């Protein structure tokens, strides 16, 4: 009797273990659509891609399906450049290179220097190279043929956003890991010499950058999240990059093809979101409150194509995200998609 | 009536404060009597239980208790915290030799940092039924994990020596030595323990259906423990008195392997800690007093913790991160118990505690917490019922010495009621228990740079439990026979303290968020049998179901979803077979699927796992002149790397061998 008890318990416990099946791969390569980067959560290895095809059907876990492996930990930025898509995976310290046509990975670039993870943040393309900011205080020049780092340029502390204007790279030095003693400067690197030629003082904790058709550089100053507020600055390319404050709060930016600057702002104090629009040429505010954003919980990224405005909602950062689509001209809500965790960057795939 | 008297007699003996180094085991060789059913008894492990299971540390031992979840971030030296029925790690307290271990900075115990070589007895007491008299603070907190050390056991031989050496896979070595000496009026003991662990191990686990392989590095661990105790007991004018002093020093150098991050190379953070403590206790018992037998205990404790966190490759301006913290806690209390016959018991006590934190960080506060605690409790045995009620209160003042600001004072009560029916039907006893308790926000939650929130309220919890216990008629003491326990529970946590990202993904802050509710039950079964010819068998099995859900906001994406890292199902089984000087124990630990986040979707699911260990022992004391025992075995026989916490992959199969010398 005693031994039968033992065997029954053993059997019950062994039966209790069961694995979930692998998802089936979906071959949607070559299709046109939108590719969304979901950041995931730190230490959870759950950065992911979502693909929205031309018929507005969304496929989550798209990188996993295309490549039968995971993207990594904390996806931070993504660009389409040339025939490739470059994805910056921060905590995994990798740049994932996808073929734009098949959206399959063709290379994973590991960013380690002297055995230490460099922790990449943002990427921008120029000529035959991409430039990647890394938290170790460098901008890395990477050849798009060999996928190797050819140069490293020292900048300020914990660089974030990058923008290219008039053969110069502008680098946002956040100093986020020195909080509360943030960095406050934008470093300017001459692309020909790869030397830092200037440092422009902006204010505490600089984040994203973008550039308009005239070469003006827009700079998000995030402040210290309490008594030093978020502000948006512009560096005037026609006037030796003189700084001026546009008097508007911002957390992320998108410059569309019509030179309209779309500004997303998440107010951390009252947890409200807002989208504003500026005409970049005249630097006038076209709308300070373009959409009804009351349904957006945590506006984490913004993207605009020919017809639509897309708002990425991180929904408190611990829930699966949401992508909301609005009419670009009227701001009227069109539809929404459930995404992966913490969507932050959207790109258009055209083949 | 005869039976009732016998029951009450034994029951009273089990609650005598002076039995506080007992295991609750009473062996009666001459008279076979039925021991009382005490359904709310603590979960207990004796020295023999510990030797049979050979756990890695205290945390590994506690995981076999029903309704307990050990959140395990690593193996040797990896953080292990205890959650009971979905309550956080700060709702329980660790007590060593009757003294609560204090750390106001984290507010919780790390059960991986308690080696079991020196432990003679472990219990988990939720319903206030321990034989070990707690400090007032521990009694108010409830949910007490209590251990007694071997060095502290009264020594009835002139002197004794216990020494052991263990070697295990992954470069683990454990060395332990204990010396005890009986004195004219008391005893003295000293023990030392050294543990080394190289620790790097290969892993192969699945996440999102994908096989991931690698080496988990940065695991090295080294610890040194030295403890001493002195006990003096004497009698004067019919007053029996005991004075005890315990002290010790611990030094731990711990690499932090961190989570397994895909494609990234190893972490290089370290945590170094030192701890020193001195505990004093004075007990007295007036033997002459007949109407009310009053036993009292006065105590004082001084504990200093130093922790250094190092990240040699942190990308700040200095190029590295070094945070130093120094916690100093001291408390003083008095606890008394008065018994009138076998029907009435009164308890009362008071305690003052002070916690101070200093650090080298400019952006961290220097808090000073002052707490006054009081407790009154009474117990009446009336006809077939035992009714116990208690009311505790705490008054807390807290100052940030850096800017001389004070938080609003906190004044909160902890009521508790227990109704016990020892013999409801035959050998079945039942009880109903309610307690409302709370835990304070710790210093990290209040003051940590950017994360801290000084406006946090205490987290409150209401607990209700209905339990039954049956044991076979041939049960004598706890030695042999069968026991079956079942509990149904419902808890409600209010003002749950959680870290919420409020600034961006990297900057979270602590918030009081809504409610967490839990319902569930656990069942456990024990069978012990001693056969002729020195054969012994013991079977233990338990199963827990706990549904612990977010009740904060109706309509939210996590409403009624299971709280992260609480398995709905868990079970344990162990079987011991001993014949003459040979013993064999099999143990299984099953942890059901959990979620890494509060949203219960497949992407957040962390797979169930089961570990199976085999432990063997050979006692050579009878067959040779060497007083030697040999233990050996295999941990995680299946060899599958598993993870309790997502991305914190634990080691696979390991082997160990241990020699124990005891005279």
TrEMBL record, chain A:
Its transmembrane ranges are none
Listed InterPro entries: DUF5074, Haem_d1_sf, Host-pathogen_enzymatic-act, WD40/YVTN_repeat-like_dom_sf
Residues forming coiled coils = none
SUPFAM superfamilies with a match to the protein in the record: C-terminal (heme d1) domain of cytochrome cd1-nitrite reductase
List, alphabetically, the Gene3D superfamilies matched: YVTN repeat-like/Quinoprotein amine dehydrogenase
Q: What is this protein called?
A: 40-residue YVTN family beta-propeller repeat-containing protein
TrEMBL record, chain B:
What sequence ranges are listed for the domain TonB-dependent receptor plug? 43-123
> Which subcellular locations apply to this protein?
Cell outer membrane
Q: How does it sit in the membrane?
A: Multi-pass membrane protein
Gene Ontology annotations for the cellular component aspect, listed alphabetically: cell outer membrane
What's the protein name? Outer membrane cobalamin receptor protein
Task: Kindly state a single biological-process term from the GO annotations of this entry.
Answer: siderophore transmembrane transport
Predominant localisation class: membrane
The family note in this entry says: Belongs to the TonB-dependent receptor family.
Q: Name one GO molecular function term.
A: siderophore uptake transmembrane transporter activity
Q: Which SUPFAM superfamilies match?
A: Porins
Signal peptide limits: 1-18
* PROSITE patterns (alphabetical): TONB_DEPENDENT_REC_3
- Keyword terms of this UniProt record: Cell outer membrane, Membrane, Receptor, Signal, Transmembrane, Transmembrane beta strand, Transport
Keyword Glycoprotein in the entry? The reply is no
């Amino acid at each position: 009797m005693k031994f039968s008890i033992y065997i029954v318990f053993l059997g019950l416990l062994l039966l209790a273990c069961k694995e979930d099946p692998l998802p089936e791969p979906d071959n949607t390569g070559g299709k046109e659509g939108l590719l969304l980067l979901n950041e995931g959560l730190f230490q959870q290895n759950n950065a992911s891609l979502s693909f929205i095809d031309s018929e507005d059907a969304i496929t989550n876990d798209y990188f996993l399906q295309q490549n039968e492996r995971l993207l990594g930990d904390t996806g931070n930025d993504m660009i389409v450049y040339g025939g490739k898509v470059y994805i910056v995976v921060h905590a995994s310290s990798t740049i994932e290179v996808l073929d734009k046509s098949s959206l399959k990975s063709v290379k994973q670039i590991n960013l380690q220097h002297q055995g230490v993870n460099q922790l990449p943040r943002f990427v921008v393309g120029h000529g035959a190279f991409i430039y990647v900011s890394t938290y170790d205080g460098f901008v890395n020049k990477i050849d798009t043929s060999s996928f190797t780092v050819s140069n490293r340029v020292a900048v300020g502390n914990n660089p974030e956003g990058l923008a290219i204007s008039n053969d110069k790279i502008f680098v946002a030095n956040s100093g986020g890991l020195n909080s509360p003693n943030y960095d406050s400067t934008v470093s300017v690197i001459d692309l020909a010499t790869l030397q830092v030629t200037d440092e422009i003082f902006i204010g505490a904790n600089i984040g994203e950058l973008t550039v308009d058709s005239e070469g003006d550089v827009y700079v998000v100053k995030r402040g210290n999240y309490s008594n030093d507020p978020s502000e948006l600055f512009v560096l005037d390319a026609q006037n030796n990059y003189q700084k001026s404050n546009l008097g508007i709060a911002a957390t992320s930016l998108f410059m569309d093809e019509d030179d309209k600057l779309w500004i997303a702002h998440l107010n951390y104090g009252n947890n409200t979101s807002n989208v504003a629009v500026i005409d970049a040429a005249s630097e006038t505010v076209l709308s300070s409150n373009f959409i009804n954003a009351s349904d957006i919980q945590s506006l984490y990224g913004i993207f605009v194509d020919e017809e639509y405005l897309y708002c990425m909602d991180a929904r408190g950062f611990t829930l699966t995200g949401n992508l909301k689509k609005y009419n670009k001209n009227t701001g009227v809500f069109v539809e929404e998609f459930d995404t992966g965790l913490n969507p932050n960057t959207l790109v258009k795939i055209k083949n | 009536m005869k039976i009732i008297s016998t029951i009450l007699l034994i029951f009273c003996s089990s609650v005598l404060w002076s039995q506080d180094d007992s295991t609750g085991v009473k062996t009666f060789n001459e008279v076979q009597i039925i021991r009382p059913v005490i359904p709310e008894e603590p979960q207990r492990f004796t020295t023999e239980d510990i030797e049979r299971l050979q756990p890695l540390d205290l945390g590994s031992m506690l995981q076999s208790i029903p309704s307990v979840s050990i959140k395990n971030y690593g193996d040797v030296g990896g953080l292990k915290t205890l959650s009971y029925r979905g309550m956080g790690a700060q709702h329980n307290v660790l007590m060593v030799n009757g003294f609560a271990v204090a750390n106001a900075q984290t507010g919780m115990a790390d059960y991986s940092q308690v080696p079991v070589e020196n432990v003679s007895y472990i219990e988990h007491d939720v319903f206030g039924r321990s034989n070990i008299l707690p400090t007032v603070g521990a009694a108010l907190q409830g949910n007490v994990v209590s251990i007694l050390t071997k060095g502290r056991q009264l020594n009835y031989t002139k002197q004794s020596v216990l020494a052991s050496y263990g070697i295990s896979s992954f470069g683990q070595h454990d060395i332990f030595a204990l010396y005890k000496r009986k004195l004219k009026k008391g005893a003295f003991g000293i023990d030392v323990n050294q543990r080394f662990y190289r620790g790097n191990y290969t892993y192969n686990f699945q996440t999102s259906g994908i096989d991931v392989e690698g080496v988990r590095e940065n695991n090295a661990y080294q610890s040194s423990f030295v403890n001493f105790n002195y006990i003096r007991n004497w009698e004067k004018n019919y007053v029996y008195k005991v004075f005890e002093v315990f002290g010790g020093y611990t030094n731990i150098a711990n690499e932090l392997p961190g989570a397994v991050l895909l494609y990234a190379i190893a972490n290089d953070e370290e945590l170094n800690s030192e701890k020193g403590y001195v505990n004093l206790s004075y007990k007295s018992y007036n033997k002459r007093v007949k109407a009310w037998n009053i036993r009292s205990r006065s105590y004082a404790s001084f504990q200093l913790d130093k922790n250094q966190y190092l990240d040699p490759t942190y990308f700040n301006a200095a190029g590295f991160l070094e945070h130093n913290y120094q916690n100093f806690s001291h408390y003083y209390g008095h606890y008394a118990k008065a018994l009138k016959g076998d029907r009435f018991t009164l308890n009362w006590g008071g305690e003052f505690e002070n916690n101070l934190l200093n650090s080298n960080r400019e952006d961290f506060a220097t808090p000073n917490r002052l707490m006054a605690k009081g407790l009154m409790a009474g117990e009446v045995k009336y006809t077939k019922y035992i009714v116990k009620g208690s009311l505790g209160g705490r008054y807390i003042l807290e100052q940030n010495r850096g800017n001389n600001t004070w938080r609003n004072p906190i004044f909160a009560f902890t009521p508790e009621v227990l109704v016990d029916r020892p013999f409801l039907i035959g050998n079945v006893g039942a009880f109903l228990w309610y307690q409302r308790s709370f835990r304070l926000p710790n210093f990290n939650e209040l003051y940590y740079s950017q994360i801290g929130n000084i406006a946090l309220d205490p987290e409150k919890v209401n607990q209700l439990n209905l339990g039954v216990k049956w044991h076979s008629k041939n049960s004598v003491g706890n030695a042999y026979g069968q026991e079956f326990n079942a509990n149904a529970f419902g808890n409600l946590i209010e003002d749950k303290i959680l870290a919420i990202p409020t600034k961006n993904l990297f900057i979270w802050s602590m918030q009081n968020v809504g409610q967490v509710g839990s319902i569930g039950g656990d069942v456990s079964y024990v069978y012990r049998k001693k056969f002729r010819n020195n054969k012994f068998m013991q079977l233990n099995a338990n199963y827990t179901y706990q549904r612990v859900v977010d009740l904060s906001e109706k309509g939210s994406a996590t409403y009624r979803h299971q709280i992260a890292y609480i398995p709905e199902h868990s079970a344990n089984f162990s079987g011991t077979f001993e014949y003459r000087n040979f013993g064999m124990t099999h143990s299984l630990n099953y942890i059901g699927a959990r979620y890494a986040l509060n949203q219960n979707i497949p992407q957040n699911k962390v797979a169930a796992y089961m570990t199976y260990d085999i432990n063997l022992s050979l006692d050579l004391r009878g067959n040779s002149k060497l007083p030697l025992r040999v233990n050996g075995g295999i941990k995680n026989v299946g060899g599958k790397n598993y993870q309790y916490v997502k991305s914190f992959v634990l080691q696979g199969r390991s082997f160990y061998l241990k020699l124990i010398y005891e005279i």
